[in-house]
Please model this.
Amino acid sequence: MLIKDRQLTSFKYTVDGTVLDPGLLILPQRVYAVQELSPEEVGPLQAWFKALFSRDSEGIDDHILRTTAPLTLLRIAPTLFSESLALAALKVVDFESIRNGCQFFFSDILNWTLVGVTKVSRPPPVR
Model:
């Protein structure tokens, strides 16, 4: 990854008074069991899952975007994808709902969270 290769993780960037830490983008990512998440993460996980994959959902509202800490969303994103696919395999959630929910992550406002999803879904190297 460019951030790690160029050793940019030791720098802090300031934009409009906000300090940005590029090291967050190379944190180890994995799928968490719901029991492994803190209560502060379970609530957002459930809210995002309902907003993204519930058949009667109208999508992501401003409230969920404002109340979820970016680091929390980065941490739960792989679990959101994994849980949705597991429920689709069990036919609890239909494929159309999964597809529609996943499309939100390709928007400019959420595509940065896919770094964790792609790290988790990448197959191990062949030796």
